[in-house]
């Protein structure tokens, strides 16, 4: 009796639960993108209110960790590849530099061996010449006999007889003795002594003193005679002088002639309109040409009107100590005149200190043409122009120096020279040429001197 009642009650309790579960269950039917029919049966969980993602987190963390390690490994591989490439390039560069140094060392070694061989050859030749000279000193001179037969018998068989040996008297031997005693300076060919044309410099004479400056302002200076004077006031005998030591050099002294200069009696003193720089001035056709102080400006000062006739900048020329001669003195621009006209001797930044020679229009001071030489301006003491050729002086202090270089503007060729030149007073700050007088004018440590020069025809093959 009680059993059926119990079962009935139990069924009544479970019925709402089933009905609730049935309420939360659903069946859906739908087509997918391919057109197939799908049945989907969904049952809500009676125990979990929401789905938990905690079970996926360890797997996601593991994947993330492995991905991070993979990225680090890829970065390391890329870095190692770049480093190895850099090291490879560095090693190749080092190897190339080492090979270059090795080649240069081998070349230097070969040059050294070649030079050592030349030195040994020169020493051998020097020893032979010394032995020959010693044997010549010890060999007695043969005496002249009235007959030539005995002399012929005493000669070595290997020596060819002198073509003039058959003379029976002693006149020939005496002539030979006299010729050997002629000074070496007289052995220079005299064929060009009477040469009066425009040619190449052959020799420079000893300096001739005309006056010594009286004060410290005359340690450096310019003194000249105009080779082609203009107007009635001045002649080619008029002497012009400027003492260039001072902050404001403007005074130009005029002397009637050399005698009045030596006595120290100027006939006139002119005042220049602009201050002058250094000792690069020159005289030409009635004008004084000079460089304005602290500038590359050239000035032509007319002596007759005593006024500034023209002024012009010398393009790109160095000034105020940029490219001076070796003695300094702001000698950046040196003006000169010769048989072919007006010249400027200077340098530029483009020429990197090498001497540039420009021919100027004497009236406008425009540059007509320029030449760049291969000798540096600060390695020479002075320069001057003769017949369109530039000549440089090696030293300003050595008492016995040389004119060491010539550049011919007609051929654009320069070459080395070794013409003796004397700085008697050991500080030569100015050298200029007067083509009418045929002399060099120089200012050597307070002393105003001239040098006679000798010109000759251009030797074959010279520049």
Strand content: 25-35%
Proportion of helical residues: 25-40%
Return residue spans where pLDDT drops below 50 for at least 5 consecutive residues: 12-19, 143-193
Computed CA radius of gyration, to the nearest angstrom: 51 Å
Give the averaged pLDDT, no decimals.
81
| β-strand number | 23
Give the N-to-C terminal Cα separation: 154 Å
- Tertiary shape: elongated
Structural class: alpha+beta
Largest sheet: 5 strands, antiparallel
Helix tally equals 5
What is the element string, with H for helices and E for strands? Answer: HEEHHHEEEEEHEEEEEEEEEEEEEEEE
Any key phrases for this structure?
alpha+beta; 5-stranded antiparallel sheet; 5 helices; 27% helix
Written description of the protein model:
It is built from five helices and 23 strands. It has 463 residues and is α+β, with helices and mostly antiparallel strands. Strands 3, 4, 21, 22 and 23 form a five-stranded antiparallel β-sheet that branches. β17 (382-386) and β18 form a beta hairpin. Residues 12-19 and 143-193 have low confidence and may be disordered.
């Amino acid at each position: 009796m009680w059993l059926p009642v119990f079962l009935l009650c139990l069924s009544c309790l479970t019925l709402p639960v089933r009905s609730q579960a049935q309420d939360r269950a659903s069946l859906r039917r739908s087509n997918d993108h391919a057109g197939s029919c799908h049945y989907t049966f969904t049952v809500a969980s009676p125990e979990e209110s929401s789905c938990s993602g905690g079970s996926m987190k360890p797997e996601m963390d593991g994947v993330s960790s492995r991905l991070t390690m993979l990225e680090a490994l890829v970065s390391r591989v890329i870095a190692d590849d770049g480093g190895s490439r850099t090291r490879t390039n560095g090693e190749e560069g080092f190897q190339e530099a080492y090979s270059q140094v090795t080649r240069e060392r081998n070349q230097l070694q070969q040059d050294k061996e070649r030079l050592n061989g030349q030195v040994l050859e020169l020493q051998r030749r020097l020893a032979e010449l010394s032995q020959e000279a010693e044997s010549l000193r010890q060999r007695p001179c043969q005496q002249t006999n009235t007959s030539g037969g005995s002399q012929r018998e005493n000669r070595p068989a290997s020596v060819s007889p002198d073509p003039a040996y058959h003379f029976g008297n002693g006149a020939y031997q005496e002539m030979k003795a006299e010729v050997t005693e002629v000074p070496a300076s007289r052995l220079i060919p005299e064929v060009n002594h009477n040469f009066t044309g425009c040619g190449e410099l052959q020799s420079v004479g000893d300096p001739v003193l005309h006056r010594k400056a009286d004060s410290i302002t005359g340690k450096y200076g310019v003194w000249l005679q105009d080779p082609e004077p203009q107007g009635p006031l001045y002649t080619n005998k008029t002497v012009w002088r400027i003492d260039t030591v001072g902050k404001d050099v403007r005074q130009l002294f005029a002397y009637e002639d050399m005698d009045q200069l030596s006595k120290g009696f100027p006939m006139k003193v002119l005042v220049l309109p602009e201050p002058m720089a250094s000792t690069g001035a020159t005289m030409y056709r009635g004008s004084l040409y000079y460089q304005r102080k602290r500038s590359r400006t050239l000035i032509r000062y007319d002596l007759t009107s005593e006024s500034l006739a023209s002024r012009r900048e010398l393009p790109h020329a160095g000034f105020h100590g940029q490219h001076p001669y070796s003695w300094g003195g702001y000698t950046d621009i040196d003006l000169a005149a010769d048989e072919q006209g007006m010249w400027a001797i200077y340098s530029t930044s483009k020429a990197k200190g090498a001497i540039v020679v420009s021919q100027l229009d004497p009236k406008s001071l425009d540059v007509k043409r320029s030449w760049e030489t291969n000798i540096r301006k600060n390695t020479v003491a002075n320069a001057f122009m003769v017949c369109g050729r530039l000549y440089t002086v090696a030293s300003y202090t050595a008492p016995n120096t040389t004119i060491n270089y010539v550049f011919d503007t007609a051929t654009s060729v320069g070459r080395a020279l070794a013409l003796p030149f004397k700085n008697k007073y050991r500080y030569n700050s100015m050298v200029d040429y007067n083509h009418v007088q045929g002399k060099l004018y120089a200012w050597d440590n307070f002393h105003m001197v001239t040098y006679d020069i000798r010109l000759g025809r251009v030797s074959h093959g010279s520049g």
